[in-house]
Glucose-6-phosphate 1-dehydrogenase
Amino acid sequence: AGRCSNRLFYLSIPPNIFLDVVRCARQQTSSENGWTRVIVEKPFGRDTESSGELTRGLKQYLTEDQIFRRIDHCLGEELVENLLVLRFSNLLFEPLWSRNYIRNVQLICSKDFGAEGRGFDNYGIIRDIMQNHLLQILALFSMETPVSLDAEDIRNEKVVKVLRSMRPVDLEDVVVGQYKGHSEGNKTYPSYTDDPSVPNNSLTPTFAASTLFIDNARWDGVPFLMIAGNAEIRVQFKNVPGNLY
């Protein structure tokens, strides 16, 4: 008795049950003498309207300072965590990190498993991978040096500067697809629509590729190829002028 009890709920669950879980947490398990906070992992809705509905629903049970939205677990991967170190603490790479030396950048996420009943059909590969995981990595890769390593300063460089400098995507620069079943040796892999949780006539993409451009002084004219289908970044540097080899 008398001890401060803080409670943190991490919602790595399907979005359609976010509000039910938050309601139960608020009514049954909230801390009376400490703080209660909720972390909501992506996808946070499937469009602007559903995202707004979720926000309003959460605020029925929680105050704004209790809600941490749109947490992307991809940012905790070792590759992503080391990207800032590679960029801004490396005298070898930082001077080369621009359109003057880089021909193109490829951000590739290729998973070796299927939908496997995970409720994937409501969102598809673009909402599930590209508009969060890969876009976060692209922004970290291409942003300018932040004022500090504080979260707010990094966010300003990523969102305010990089994402707002991105050119709208043309449909002719996008390819989507859906995986089919196949056999490899003695093992058979089902197609996407063979999954019991997926409608037989589903057109939800499980593969997508898109070319993006950032219209600023550093990256003007450099194509960023985003492929989703863990993450890999490939940088193709230009040839050295007058290369003897």
Helices lie at 18-28, 48-58, 78-81, 83-88, 124-142, 151-162. The mean pLDDT is 83.
